Amino acid sequence: MKKLKRSARLVEMTQYLLNRPHTLISLTAFADRYQSAKSSISEDLAIIKEVFEEEGLGELHTLAGAAGGVKYTPKMQVEEARKIMERVCGQLEQPERVLPGGYLYMTDMLGQPGLLADIGRMFATAFASKEIDVIMTVETKGIPLAYATAASMNLPVVIVRRDNKVTEGSAVSINYVSGSNKRIQTMSLARRALKEQSRVLIIDDFMKAGGTIQGMMDLLHEFNAQVAGVGVFVESGELENEERLFEDYVSLAKLAAVDMKTKQTTIVLGNFFEGAKTGDQ
Fold first, then answer.
1. Where is the Bacterial purine repressor N-terminal domain (predicted)?
2. What are the angstrom distances between the C-alpha of 50 and each of 40, 55, 64, 187?
């Protein structure tokens, strides 16, 4: 790269960091890239660090020593997340979104790149202190959420299938009980998709009793993998004589009430916004 003026270097360096979250970048790499002294690079990074923290874009961590450098950790301030999710809750309360069984139509919202990026940053914020190797979801609507979260955490994505695909080779399959209709269903994961002992963050779009997520947890046992966390976009607050299969999860929104006759719903903020759930922020 040709030598840049400082103003241009700051812009390019900022973009470089934003595109490489959770990646350790040495001062030498920056110095070589911009043909500048390490002292100048350090001054630039100090400016970027200050702006990131003041604007709530995340944190820039500096690691000293020969193997040191800087690492960008994306985060979102609670108030910014609150404004975004309050707007989302208002959109989810539209009567035409109510589906049979107390579900919500959200596919159109999960196709908006800007919103997905924001959701990814929220989950990345919630689980910033966790040691995670991979993001897991089940096909199909959880896939964009998983990739958005993975982009903010610089992690790979593993997709659990409803049935085994020939193109994925041998797989581990289990039966699980759907929390909504109590039917026995099957999910599978290719043996090569996940390394044993992996620490896994499960991401899903909607959760009622949690049968599907519990199924993924059971599937992880077959790989000797560990559940590092569970994040859901919307949880249901009305379980109709059902019990939640697990309690340790982070939700961004909650379907607090739904009237199937009038199609009226009440969507409130999820437990991400409770003090006990936002300690990493």
1. 5-74
2. 16, 9, 18, 46
Q: Terminus-to-terminus CA distance in the chain, angstroms? A: 36
What is the CATH number that goes with domain 6-74? 1.10.10.10
pLDDT digits (tens, 9 = 90+) for 91-135: 999 999 998 877 889 999 999 999 999 999 999 999 999 999 999
Domain ranges of the chain: 6-74, 78-277
CA 33, 34, 35: angle at the middle one, nearest 5?
A: 100
The answer to whether the CB of 233 falls within 8 A of the CB of 84 is no
CATH of 78-277, one of 1.25.40.10, 3.20.20.70, 3.40.50.2020, 3.40.630.10: 3.40.50.2020
Q: Is the dihedral of CA 151, 154, 160, 166 positive or negative?
A: positive
For 18, the 3-state DSSP assignment is helix
Report the C-alpha gap between 187 and 277 in whole angstroms. Answer: 30
- Quick one: which of 106, 134, 129 has its CA closest to 119? 106
